[in-house]
Design a protein that fits this description.
Layout: E1 3-7, H1 15-31, E2 36-38, H2 56-72, E3 78-87, E4 90-99, E5 102-108, E6 132-135, E7 138-144, H3 154-157, E8 165-170, H4 178-193, E9 196-201, E10 203-206, E11 209-212, E12 216-218, E13 224-227, E14 234-238, H5 251-270, E15 275-278, H6 283-296, E16 301-305, H7 313-326, E17 330-332, H8 336-346, H9 357-379, E18 382-385, H10 389-394, E19 407-408, H11 415-428, H12 434-438, H13 458-470, H14 475-480, H15 485-497, H16 499-503
Parallel strand pairs: 1-2, 2-3, 7-8, 8-9, 15-16, 15-18, 16-17, 18-19
Antiparallel strand pairs: 1-14, 3-4, 4-5, 6-7, 9-12, 10-11, 12-13
Amino acid sequence: MHAALLQINPTVGALRSNADLIIQEAHRAADAGAELLITPECALSGYPPEDLILKDHFCADCQNELDRLINELPKEPLILIGTPLLRNGKKHNAAIAIQNGTIVGEYYKQLLPNYGVFDEKRLFAPGTEALILNHTGKKIAVHICEDSWEPEGTAVTNIEQPIDLLINLSASPYHRGKQKDRLRILQQTAQSLSTTLLYCNLIGGQDELVFDGSSMVIAPDGSLISRAPAFMTHTLHWNTASAEITPPLNELSEIYEALKLGLHDYVEKTGFKKVVIALSGGIDSALVLALAVDALGTDRVISVTMPSRYSSSGTLQDAIDMANRLHIPIHQIPIEPLHHQFQNQLTSIWENKTSAELTDENLQARIRGNLIMAISNEFNWLVLTTGNKSEMAMGYCTLYGDMCGGFALIKDVPKTTVFDLCRWRNEQSEVIPPEIINRPPSAELRPDQKDTDSLPPYHQLDPILEAYVEQDLGIDGLISAGFDPDLAKRVIHAVELSEYKRRQSPPGVKITPRSFDRDRRMPIVNRYRN
């Protein structure tokens, strides 16, 4: 059998465009001889559709587009379409089997995930029955994403064996290490059913999530037969005579591509023409600028540098140098006059200037935030903020200052990974001035300031944050893991104290197993401390 896995990039809610995309790619694959066509989970609606599912008229519109698909898809192949479906008053995450202009089977997702970024139990009713299709002499079972993630779960045990193929329509979002975990689990499921598993995953960015594709075919013994490239649209053709295996990316390449795709699709799908970045000469804004140019091209990226009395000549020159290396415009707006004016206006209230030092630092950040947002408003450019996960965790950021913007691209990237990504990017071509990478990080909001004045060194901080935020270790677990007790307590206190700031931050690309956006939902008013 010749199968085609349509690794496509739909847009949530763009039902007509998504249907057109499915029709186009299905005809292309059928013309290439495919007898079995597979789309990802919820390919018709885009994923995750979230509370659009609660709107009956949305599900009715999905049905209208499904009816159009039935009429316009190629007739000969068996085609599996992922879509929300309203049946008998219940809404399902469904796979619709279509052939010869008619529905030949319906499958409803049985295991509805309700952890991390998923909320499917509040949206869909679970299915209870397996679907077995007969096509070209093969017995074919169908799963949707999570159904295959429990090799001994009911969605697997419900299948009456033997079968020849298990088809999985998936929308499995990316995070660091996810591809290895996914392959391992699907190998176990293929072995459990002694069948070939065809796994078709979604591609593209949707709000904070990035779907990496990496669709694959796994043999009954668990060996990898075929795999599509990650982070790009692709049709993976497979039959018993030929197969392609795209090698996996290394970790830094994988993270960089995820950030790039997440940014590109957020900008494209929200309709912005250009992005604007406050370029400080520091490492975070350097990484954001490199990603933006790589994702969008030089003609869609604008930079602005806003030096203050505390900005060094080195950082200013590095900002200009990097903009020139990437061939993008850079606008200089010194904030010194505005800073003086604000200080003068506040003098009568700031009786003790020493006590206002932190306020004065935040004031500079907020002046910059006002300026960059004014530029955004005037030209309808999307502001990309430049804060990283380490800063967001510790509250080392200013509300309505450096947090101003529409998309926080690297908010889930720890500071140590920011350094690693910058070094990796320069290995491809040196677009980041080396001085930016080598200079000790500083916000440059007071004389001779360093990040380590307020934060632990990042090589000590980031492992604690990973253990506390991503692994949920408490203070005893952190101490048992070898972390300094006083440092661990300091980090826990800062993380919990800063929840109110994170709640007001823009969305950003998820690249770790637990981000601060959709994965970790902590109360703002929270007096629990472990």
